[in-house]
Design goal:
The complex is a heterodimer. Chain A is of the alpha+beta class. Chain A has one domain: Cytochrome-c3 Hydrogenase, chain B (Orthogonal Bundle), CATH 1.10.645. In chain A, 45% of the residues lie in helices and 19% in strands. In chain A, a hairpin with a 2-residue loop joins strand 13 and strand 14. The longest helix of chain A has 29 residues. Chain A is globular. In chain A, 53% of the residues are buried. By secondary structure, chain B is an alpha/beta fold. Chain B has one domain: Rossmann fold. A five-stranded parallel β-sheet of chain B has the order 2-1-3-4-5, with helices on one face. In chain B, helix 2 crosses helix 4. The radius of gyration of chain B is 16 Å and the shape is globular. Classes of the chains: A alpha+beta, B alpha/beta. The interface between A and B is large, with 41 and 42 residues.
C-alpha cells in the first residue's frame, strides 16, 4: 500500500514522496497516481481541520483550548466545536508555534544546519539529525560504515524508548493512575540520564554528525547495557500490572478510534498506523535490523496505540542489546567513510518514535540551497482531529497523548 | 509485584542531595521562602524544555518537599517560567499572561541555546525578571528555584 507523505516542486516538475514496504521513494511527475491527501500536503495550511465540519447548529460553539493553558502544554490551539458534551468537529492551529526553521536552514553549511535540525523538535532530535545526515550524505556521496550505522540505530532506539515511556506515563496520568504515572516518569528520567551517560546529552544532541558519529568507549557501552536491562525489567513489571487494571484499560479502550482506511487516507505512519493493523515500518527496509518483530494491533484506539508502543519498547531494547553485543566485539572503532558519486539532491529518512521523518535537500557549492521536510506530527494532528469526533471532552487528553505528537514537530 | 504504594515507598525513589545552580538569580520576597507556586508557559521552544519541566515533576526530584508546586493557572502562581523565545504570534498571549499574575510575582526566563540569536529581535521588556537560564537540566532549574526562594 503506497502512502503519500510529501509533495514538492523542482524545476517546475512535481515530485511525490511515497512510502511503501519500509522504503521511501521519489516519484517524478506522477500523472497517473491519485492520493486523497494530496491537497492537504500540498497546501500545508497551518490550520488543520477534521473531515467532518459542523460549526453551526443549536447551541454549537467554538471551545478554544490553548495556547496558554495547562491542558495543552505547548503553544498551539485546538478549536473544539461542541454543544457541551460531544465534540462535533476540530480545528488545530499550528501557527503559534511556527519558528520558520526550514527557512533558517536554507543557505547554510550542512554542519552548521545540523544544530537547527536538532532544534526542530527536542524529543525527536536524534531522528531528525539522522534523517538530515542521511540526506546530506546521499547528496555529497558519503557512504556510512557499519559501526556508525549501528550506533545510529542504538540512538534511534534509545529515543524511541524514552518517548514511548513518556507517552504511556502521560496516558496513565490522564486516567488518574498517578502511582503508575509516577513510576513510569521515574523510568523516563532514568532513560534520559542513561542517554546523558552514553552520549553526553539527555536528548542525544550533538551525538550524530554528518558522515560520522561520536564513538563511545567500551565502558559506556557496558553502562548502557546494564541501564537498559534495569529499565526494561522495571517497565515489564509495571506494564503487566497496568494491563491488569480494569479502570485504566476501560478508559483507553474504544477511545479516539482512528480506522485503518482513515489513517491511510491521511498519510499517518509510525505506531499510530501500526495500531490500526498495517504492518508498515521504515526499519523493515534497513538490512541492519536483524529479525525485527513489528507489533500491530487492530482496533486503532488509544489502547491499541499504547500496546503497540509498549511492545516497541521491548523490541527496541532487544535491538540495542544486539547492537551492543556486536560493537563490544569490535576492537578497532576507527571509521572511514567511503566516497561515492556526488549528486545535487539527496533523500534521507528515518523511523522516528511517532512515524516517518523525511528530508529532501538540494546542495549548491556544498551549501543547502533548498530543502523539504516531512514530519509525522503534521499528519498526526489531522489524525487527532478526526479521531476526536464523537468523543466527549474528557477523552481529549487520551486522544492527544496517545498519538505522541507535538506542535514543534508539526509547525517547524 | 508488591502493592504499588508499598513498592514506591520501599524503593526510595526520591534523591537526597543538594541541588545547586551557578546562574545568578534575584531572590524573591521572604513570603515565598517555604512555598512557591509555579506556572510555565511555552512560547516557542522545541518541546525539549517542556520535557525538562515534566521531568522536574518526576519522583527523583520530588519538588513538593521543598514547597514547589505547579499551578494550573497564572492567577494561582507566584513565579512565571517562560520556556523558549517568543514566536511572533506568542508575544500577545505572553503579555496577557504576565498581566494575569498576582502581585508580587517573578518571571524566570528559560531559553535554548541553538536558536536564540535568530529570534533575538523578539526579546521583550518583561517586568520582575528574576533570572535567565540557558539550556538547563531539571536539577539546574530546581537549584535556581531553591535559590529564588531562599535568597543568594
Amino acid at each position: 500500500m503506497k502512502i503519500l507523505i510529501g509533495v514538492f516542486q523542482k524545476d517546475g516538475i512535481e515530485h511525490y514522496i511515497v512510502q511503501e514496504n519500509g522504503v521511501i521513494s521519489l516519484e517524478v511527475d506522477p500523472k497517473n497516481m491519485y492520493f486523497e491527501n494530496y491537497t492537504f500536503i500540498k497546501l500545508r495550511d497551518p490550520i488543520i481541520s477534521s473531515y467532518e465540519s459542523v460549526r453551526n447548529g443549536e447551541g454549537v460553539f467554538d471551545f478554544r483550548y490553548g495556547p496558554v493553558t495547562s491542558g495543552v502544554g505547548e503553544a498551539g490551539i485546538y478549536h473544539l466545536y461542541t454543544y457541551g458534551e460531544r465534540i462535533l468537529s476540530v480545528d488545530v492551529d499550528l501557527s503559534y508555534k511556527s519558528r520558520k526553521l526550514d527557512q533558517m536552514i536554507s543557505g547554510r553549511d550542512p554542519k552548521e544546519a545540523l544544530k537547527f535540525v536538532e532544534s526542530i523538535c527536542g524529543n525527536f532530535a536524534f531522528s531528525h539529525s539522522v534523517a538530515f545526515s542521511r540526506a546530506v550524505e546521499n547528496s555529497l556521496g558519503i557512504n556510512i560504515d557499519p559501526v556508525t550505522e549501528s550506533l545510529r540505530i542504538v540512538g534511534i532506539e534509545l529515543e524511541r524508548i524514552y518517548n514511548h515511556l513518556y507517552v504511556i506515563s502521560q496516558l496513565a496520568l490522564a486516567a488518574s493512575q498517578k502511582v503508575l504515572s509516577s513510576h513510569l516518569s521515574y523510568l523516563f528520567e532514568e532513560s534520559l540520564r542513561l542517554n546523558k551517560i552514553f552520549s553526553n546529552s539527555r536528548y542525544l544532541k550533538n551525538f550524530n554528525r554528518i558522515g560520522e558519529i561520536k564513538i563511545p568507549d567500551g565502558e559506556k557501552l557496558q553502562t548502557l547495557k546494564e541501564g537498559i536491562l534495569k529499565i526494561i525489567d522495571d517497565f515489564k513489571k509495571l506494564y503487566d500490572h497496568a494491563l491488569a487494571s480494569g479502570n485504566f484499560i476501560d478508559r483507553l479502550y474504544s477511545t479516539a478510534v482512528l480506522k485503518m482506511s482513515d489513517a491511510l487516507k491521511i498519510g499517518i505512519t509510525g505506531p499510530t498506523l501500526r495500531a490500526t493493523g498495517v504492518k508498515e515500518d521504515l526499519r523493515y527496509g534497513n538490512w541492519m535490523y536483524e529479525d525485527l518483530q513489528i507489533s500491530t494491533k487492530n482496533d486503532g484506539d488509544a489502547l491499541s496505540r499504547m500496546e503497540v508502543r509498549a511492545e516497541e519498547i521491548f523490541e527496541s531494547s532487544k535491538i540495542i542489546l544486539q547492537k551492543i553485543q556486536i560493537l563490544q566485539k569490535i576492537q578497532n572503532f576507527k571509521t572511514t567513510p567511503e566516497s561515492m558519486e556526488k549528486r545535487s539532491n539527496g533523500l534521507g529518512y528515518c523511523e522516528s518514535p511517532s512515524g516517518t521523518i523525511v528530508y529532501v535537500i538540494e546542495t549548491k557549492d556544498s551549501k543547502i540551497s533548498d530543502l523539504y521536510i516531512s514530519t509525522p506530527s503534521f499528519f498526526g494532528f489531522k489524525g487527532v482531529a478526526n479521531a476526536m469526533i464523537g468523543n466527549v471532552f474528557t477523552d481529549f487528553q487520551f486522544a492527544i497523548e496517545s498519538f505522541g505528537i507535538n506542535f514543534a514537530d508539526a509547525a517547524l | 509485584m508488591k502493592w504499588w504504594p508499598i513498592r514506591g515507598l520501599s524503593r526510595f525513589l526520591t534523591e537526597k542531595r543538594d541541588y545547586k545552580s551557578d546562574t545568578s538569580v534575584k531572590p524573591m520576597k521572604k513570603i515565598f521562602r517555604r512555598s512557591l507556586h509555579v506556572y510555565t508557559i511555552d512560547v516557542g521552544n522545541s518541546n525539549l524544555l517542556n520535557f525538562e519541566i515534566k521531568e522536574l515533576q518526576s519522583p527523583q526530584y520530588n519538588t513538593h518537599r521543598f514547597g514547589i508546586y505547579f499551578a494550573d493557572s497564572p492567577r494561582h502562581a507566584d513565579l512565571l517560567i517562560i520556556l523558549g523565545n517568543p514566536t511572533e504570534k506568542m508575544v500577545e498571549p505572553l503579555m496577557n499572561t504576565v498581566k494575569q499574575m498576582p502581585e508580587p510575582f517573578g518571571i524566570l526566563i528559560v531559553e535554548e541555546n541553538e536558536i536564540v540569536e535568530e529570534n533575538e529581535k523578539n526579546s521583550l521588556q518583561l517586568p520582575n525578571v528574576v533570572g535567565k537560564l540557558k539550556n538547563p537540566e531539571p536539577e539546574e532549574i530546581l537549584g535556581a528555584l531553591l535559590k529564588i526562594m531562599k535568597g543568594n
